[in-house]
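Recap from last week: sequence in, structure out.
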Amino acid sequence: MRGVTVSEFDVVVIGAGPPGENAAGRAVEMGFSAAIVESRLVGGECSFYGCVPSKALVRPGDALAAARRVPGAAPAITGGADAAASFAWRDYMTSSWSDHTQTPWLESVGIELVRGHGRLAGERTVEVETEQGTTTLTARRAVVLANGTTPFMPPIDGLAESRPWTNRQATAAHAVPERFLVLGGGPIGAELAQAFSRLGSRVTLVEGNDRLLARDEPFAGEQVAESFRDEGIEVRLGVRATAVRRDDDGVHVTLDDGETVVGDEILVAVGRRPNTADVGLETIGLEPGRPISVDERLRVRGVDGEWLYAVGDVSGGAQLTHMGKYQGRVFGDVLAGRDTVDEANARAVPRVTFTDPQIAAVGLTEADARERGIDVRVVSYDTGGVAGAYLRGDGIHGTSQLVVDQERGVVVGATFTGPDVQEIVHAATIAIVGEVPLERLWHAVPVFPTVSEVWLRLLEAYGL
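Predicted structure tokens:
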């Protein structure tokens, strides 16, 4: 008969992805004891099926495209990306889906790892089904839900039976489909569509909205769609799949405009849902399967006693690894009694879509700002119109845009499109979080010749 063990810690965290690791790590740093429960791999979705492997697959095509823009380097590019080598690099970056490089850190800082599926079993109690039996963990101070999300599979006739890929199968693939269908034009769908296209697939992307990357500024999605079409990716906007079937000839997707598209594999990337169906919410009076609502200190609403917290994707905030890590650190500070709240998710979420052109943004879009009643002025400049961009090669274009709160004279949103713009968005994040007046930003002199000089041009366009 399998045994039952009971252990007590100050903090028990369910989920060992980056948000959970940071929550447990910050708690230990503050002098508390902590255990972390994980049923899969320590490092979570980001390390093994999301950010890391997807960017490893994106990078080869990106590097080739960058070299082709440089006159002295372009002649050396005589072929496309090596798919086998790209997959091998991805395998290296994920340690071939082993977390042996991740777990030593937990041990080094004194975090107890419990492998198994964890569920709430009442106030401050977590039961974990392990290979050895049931382990009951009691939290003296707090339980933290950090168990992330799972891909949403829409109820399309025949889709589930057609063996669709989610991000997990796509980022773990070892062969390039000759024909690749992608449902969803958000960041996951867009990145993997271009990655597989550059690895050799003929890609068709289907998006129900009238533009890609619908949560970003309209020009961002338009520029990515134009780039995709120039590369040979078929982009179908404003249409939705109504039926899917797989046969010997591949995967057939019927669209609501009456047309059918066919591929050898199909990726479904139309959103994600929080992992709340099987985490024991019913034992504390919450409804399983529903999103978890938290307050500004990341305490789960509807639970008395201030002992249950949620961080990362499961908490309903921005589904981005860096934001989950930030929330983990906020939790530790709250636990230690510091006057800390989650400010970033409310007004300064930095985000990058690693397509070519890249989309790097932070804060509010123009539409978001106006919806909030902010009197804004928008200024923009061609990202490729500065010397630093010219030096990166021929044909570099894009848009750099600031959304300015006129009343306060501060930036509340920024978007940059173009190659490698991920490296200039943090300046905008600092400007927004610090509420730096534009008159002060004018004295932050950008280095010449870098793409960051676009900041100077934007401030000049504003009239400074």
